[in-house]
Amino acid sequence: MKKRVLAVVVAGVLALTSLAGCGNASAKASAKDEKIIKIAASATPHAEVLEQVKPILEKQGIKLEITVFDDYVLPMTTVESGELDANYAVHVPYLESFNSEQGTHLANAGGIHYEPFGIYPGQKSSLNDVAEGDVIAIPNDTTNEARALLLLQDNGLITLKDGAGLTATINDITSNPKNLKLQELEAAQVARVRSEVAYVVLNGNYALEAGLSVGKDSIAYESSTSTAAKTYVNIIAVKEGHENDEAIQELVKALKSDEIKKFINEKYDGAVVPFE
Question: Does pTM top 0.90 for this prediction?
Fold first, then answer.
């Protein structure tokens, strides 16, 4: 009887050991199968949106690691070097300009949203109060400066030469009736000089970071049907050749899901608009 009991106990221990071994093997396999996407993002709205995407991707066995940057250059160079897998903070014109100027090889893996540019109050709260020599702060990078100038033109403050369009610079201004002084600053710095200038022209994400709403606080902003709004859709930028990687496409799919569209519309109240 004792031998029989001992045999049963030993068999039980072996079975448990076997199960434990299977469990460990399964855990190791699961950890091995998990994919990781390391992605750069601006704090607002990009990183906030990505946080909402995390649980969606986890169901697909993908872990999202987000690194927040406060400029446009470093996110691009870290993707080019392979330190990060993707960047969710730029639009196509900036990507193309950056590739041309820096010799990088970055590509568009999918359009996610656009952020209407707006003119916001500084020392003045209405464009009816524009006076001779007023200072307006605008972004100084190639593509965002053009967008700011087009918005100023749309509101009758300046005139640009024919054909300047999305490549416009201050050198393309042909008429400036009020002799406005355009103060060119790095995009992240524009909102910080509001108290020092008459008006500021802000990217949507930097307006959000400054606690400003396009619908409630801006004096004027791009319409959703404008060429600029459609052109400057924010994208997932990756190193060339990785646009169709399975994990990257799952990320794009998640960002374009109905769940994320609903989050964007409810949280940002028109300051961020999902791209169809």
Answer: no
